[in-house]
Amino acid sequence: MGNHSDDLPASSEVVAKAGHDEVEKFQDPGLPPHRLRLADTDPKAAKRAERQVAILFGISAIGTLLFFFAYFGIRLDQTIATLRLQNMFLGLGIGFAMLGIGTGIVHWARALMPDHEVSEERHEMRTEEDRLAAVQIVDDIVEETGIKRRPLIRNTLIGAMALAPLPAIAILRDLGPLPGNAMHTTLWKKGERLARDPDGTPIKAADVTIGSAFHVIPESLNTLTEGKLNEKAKAAVLMMRLDPDELHPSAGREDWAYNGIVAYSKICTHVGCPVALYEQQTHHLLCPCHQSTFDLTRECKVIFGPAVRPLPQLPITVDSEGYLVAQSGFHEPVGPSFWERS
User: Fold this and answer.
1) Residue pLDDT, tens place only, 190-229
2) What confidence tens digit (pLDDT) does each residue in 266-297 have?
3) Contact 301, 294 (CB under 8 A)
4) CA-wise closest residue to 252 among 187, 171, 193, 313
5) How many Å from the N-terminal Cα to the C-terminal Cα in the chain?
6) Which residues pair with 318 in a beta bridge?
7) Considering only CA atoms, which of 220, 221, 204 is closest in space to residue 212?
8) Which of these, 61, 190, 211, 252, has the minimum number of CB atoms within 10 Å of its CB?
9) In the prediction, which pLDDT does 11 show?
10) Which residues pair with 101 in a beta bridge?
11) Cβ atoms 212, 226 nearer than 8 A
12) How many Cβ atoms from other residues are within 10 Å of residue 336's Cβ?
């Protein structure tokens, strides 16, 4: 094989060879030449871009108004068609509200705000001079946006941003009842029979075998004509039967179960998802939303997941006909653990 060492250059300005004391540094190529945009050179183009941004902010405001029209103006009549129509306009309204602001700001930055590149050394800001320099930088940024010189953009942006959060407030307010008596009061009361969900037939203790699980509602739910879904959401219960020796009730709760039959609220104490998974071998209840896990043998104590409060227990017994009934309502609010609760 030939020796190719003779083919290499004697010296190189790019590669540093072993033994060299210093490595030649590349020169800073600097910033590329700044290219002016059409709006930078043509006042008419700048004015046109300004109007386009204002139109986008106006579209955002219209989208917010469309959301409120759908939310308050379209009355639901228990038909799927009306529900779909409202959902469609709700989605379009909030979509245009967010899209208008986002697109408007992006177009504003690309077409009208200064786009020249700068290179600055980063250093700690400790002196008063540095603080004043930082304030000046902020002032320069505000000046460069042109918001002081472009009242049309400024006013439409303020209007769009003032309206945009309102749909979120309306949606969050309508998620459910506020904490307090609304979540403390359910249909469960002394003597209320436990009934199967969804057919509403009462359950006898003799029909509940060890290892079985029932989705339970109050029997009186069948007679409601208004607010049935809301009441069911608060009163839904899971009922299981274990070997009585596996239960470890705390003081004062020794008689809340009947022959190993226990009943607990079905509403997860994290964010209110339905706890619907029962692991028969481990006696664990699992919330499928965020995997909060409750130990059924220890009064549904939280053993895993984000929930911080056990599931409320419904005290139960049997009536003279052998049907399972509630001894009382829940002794604590059901549902998510709001910060107001201890």
Assistant:
1) 999 999 998 899 999 999 999 999 999 999 998 887 878 8
2) 999 998 899 988 999 999 999 999 999 999 99
3) yes
4) 313
5) 85
6) 324
7) 204
8) 252
9) 47
10) none
11) no
12) 18
